[in-house]
């Protein structure tokens, strides 16, 4: 008998076909539960028993189909981005896909920035960057879902812009979408929560609806996987080293031209040309920084990759894409960030301009942007 004729059991909660292959995919259950009757998938189980939303992920094509379906609804779209990986996690085409529905941009993980940050300036920066990426938003809210900072404003904005509509929550993976939805659920904790299920419009993917008091729902969408984010490329065990937990500690380096910084074994920053100047790195604290001469850099990497220059560790090197080089020219008198998706950013302070090379695994997004701070 061919395998296609075997019909997989379905989740008694949301109806999705069950499997025990990959816990990040919708419909996952531990293998032992697959044989039981009336099994619900891990996602439904967590929501039902712990009021806890958990992440499932889909690739870009599936996600775009799903977004296209939102266009035919009348809803508020809450787009969550990760402040630490802003350009990596922003869904720049969002506008085109969700039709006329308003988009509320929620910028999460602000706890990572120094306390002395000028939040108004940051909000303006976010608005400008979003505009440059073609994203028109009804409002921008800054928060930390994990540390419960600014959450009142998130609730207030959702209530203001929702106006008796459903709320679709969209975001890339690891931006804190589940953490934020869990907070939303607990904020509406007086509700008798009978989760209902229906398909995302126009897709085969099932959505769990978290009811609101007016009969409308919050609908969690799967996290989108963007291949340009370092967090999608590193081995899973190194992800914790990349996702910062505490406020970023700025590290300032006075560099002469022809000097190089290694960020673990994940990125290399060459100051190719320019007058002596300082560079301030805002990186995840799990990444050790090593400094060397540019002429020594290749040799150092060949000798120490996977050990001193890690993550990734030696046994994972094979699974990483080869490095490619990005050449960046910083104009004089401009304060810019060299943004490396998932690793952080390096602020340039030069008045005289510089030429920089950034080496990263192929595909990882690297760009110059107006300085965030
Ligand atoms: P999802 O994949 O978007 O659902 O993201 P999760 O909610 O699973 O969070 C991904 C990672 O980001 C986890 O390690 C969270 O602890 C962390 N995280 C979530 N919210 C925040 C926040 O406000 N600040 C910080 N520093 N980390 C956060």
CATH superfamily of the largest domain: P-loop containing nucleotide triphosphate hydrolases
Total beta-strand segments: 19
User: For the residues shown, what is the average pLDDT?
Assistant: 88
Globally, the shape reads globular
Structural class designation: alpha/beta
Instruction: Note the gap between the termini.
Output: 62 Å
Whole-number tally of structural domains: 2
Task: Give me the CATH architecture of the largest domain, please.
Answer: 3-Layer(aba) Sandwich
Using only C-alpha atoms, the radius of gyration works out to: 22 Å
Would you tell me which CATH topology of the largest domain applies?
Rossmann fold
Spans of at least 5 consecutive residues with low confidence: none
What is this structure's SSE topology?
Elements: H1 31-34, H2 42-50, E1 57-58, H3 60-71, E2 75-82, H4 86-89, H5 94-97, E3 103-108, H6 119-132, E4 139-142, H7 151-162, E5 166-171, H8 177-187, E6 196-199, E7 206-211, E8 217-220, E9 223-224, H9 230-233, H10 239-242, E10 251-255, E11 259-263, E12 267-274, E13 277-283, E14 289-293, H11 294-304, E15 323-330, E16 336-340, E17 344-348, E18 354-361, E19 366-370
Parallel strand pairs: 1-9, 2-3, 2-5, 3-4, 5-8
Antiparallel strand pairs: 6-7, 7-8, 10-13, 11-12, 11-14, 12-18, 13-17, 15-18, 16-17, 16-19
The structure holds guanosine-5'-diphosphate (GDP).
């Amino acid at each position: 008998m061919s395998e296609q004729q075997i019909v997989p059991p379905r989740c008694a909660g949301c109806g999705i076909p069950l499997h025990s292959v990959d816990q990040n995919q919708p419909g996952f259950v531990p293998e032992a539960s697959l044989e039981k009757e009336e099994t619900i998938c891990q996602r439904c189980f967590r929501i039902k028993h712990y009021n806890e939303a958990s992440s499932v992920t889909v690739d870009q094509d599936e996600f775009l189909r799903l977004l296209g379906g939102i266009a035919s609804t009348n809803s508020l779209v809450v787009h969550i981005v990760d402040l630490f990986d802003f350009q990596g996690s922003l869904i720049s085409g969002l506008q085109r896909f969700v039709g006329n529905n308003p988009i509320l941009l929620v910028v999460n993980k602000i706890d990572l920035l120094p306390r002395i940050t000028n939040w108004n300036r940051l909000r303006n920066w976010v608005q400008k960057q979003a505009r440059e990426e073609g994203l028109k938003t009804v409002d921008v809210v800054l928060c930390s879902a994990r540390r419960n900072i600014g959450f009142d404003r998130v609730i207030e904005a959702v209530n203001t812009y929702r106006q008796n509509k459903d709320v679709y929550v969209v975001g890339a993976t690891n931006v804190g979408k589940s953490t934020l939805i869990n907070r939303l659920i607990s904020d509406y904790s007086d509700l008798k929560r009978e989760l209902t299920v229906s398909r995302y419009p126009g897709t085969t993917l099932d959505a769990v609806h978290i009811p609101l008091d007016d009969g409308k729902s919050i609908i969690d969408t799967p996290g989108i996987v963007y291949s340009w984010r370092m967090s999608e490329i590193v081995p899973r065990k190194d992800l914790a080293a990349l996702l910062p937990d505490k406020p970023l500690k700025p590290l300032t380096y006075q560099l002469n031209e022809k000097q190089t910084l290694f960020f673990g074994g994940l990125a290399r920053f060459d100051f190719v040309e320019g007058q002596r100047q300082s560079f301030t790195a805002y990186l995840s604290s799990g990444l050790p920084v090593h400094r060397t001469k540019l002429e020594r850099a290749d040799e150092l990497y060949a000798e120490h990759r996977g050990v001193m220059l890690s993550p990734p560790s030696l046994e994972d090197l094979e699974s990483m894409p080869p490095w490619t080089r990005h050449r960046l020219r910083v104009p004089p008198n401009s304060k810019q960030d060299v943004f490396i998706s998932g690793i952080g950013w390096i602020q340039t302070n030069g008045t005289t301009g510089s030429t920089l090379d950034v080496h990263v695994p192929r595909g990882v997004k690297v760009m110059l942007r107006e300085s965030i701070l």
